[in-house]
Design goal:
about 160 residues, three-stranded parallel beta sheet, two-stranded antiparallel ribbon, 7 strands
Length: about 160
């Protein structure tokens, strides 16, 4: 995967092609792209108690990616949203969430698996991909059919800090 790093920025992935258009007041003509990825999160599919800023921002990114996909379609640009589940990185540790279920990396997705799934979806032109193992895909399916109230309760159980310590 390291050979792709050159094309990745914090704003997405640009690959050879061209998109001569204006979008959002910006001339996109100088970008050379045919595919673009935006990272959202599985948190975009559920209320996120105790992470009340993170979840809504991920929901925005997912909606933003879907909107860009439609707006840029006529210019030959494909946009893929990556919705990774909990991934074994330092993210939750840096956020001070060691006292939650998310503070433990032992059960989380391997970052390489998440990246691999994202790149495969990007190159196949999919609109989005759930980045993670079977359990993560099951959680996404469960979120699709669960009520907002039940999703909020389930998420709160995992994200509420353990007050005993």
């Amino acid at each position: 995967m390291s050979h792709l790093r050159y094309g990745w920025t914090r704003h997405g992935c640009w690959l050879p092609g061209s998109c001569p258009t204006r979008w959002g007041g910006f001339a996109v003509r100088r970008w050379y792209c045919s595919t673009l990825t935006r990272r959202a999160s599985l948190s975009a599919t559920t209320p996120t108690p105790y992470e009340s800023i993170y979840g809504p921002t991920r929901s925005f990114m997912y909606s933003f990616a879907q909107s860009l996909r439609e707006e840029l379609r006529e210019h030959g640009v494909s946009v893929t949203a990556l919705l990774p589940g909990a991934t074994a990185t330092e993210f939750h540790d840096r956020a001070g969430m060691q006292q939650t279920k998310f503070g433990d990396n032992s059960w989380k997705n391997d970052p390489e698996l998440v990246a691999k799934l994202g790149v495969e979806a990007l190159f196949s032109g999919r609109d989005h991909v759930i980045g993670g193992d079977r359990g993560t895909r099951w959680a996404a399916l469960r979120n699709k059919f669960s009520s907002e109230e039940s999703k909020a309760k389930r998420f709160a159980q995992d994200s509420k800090p353990d007050e005993r310590e």
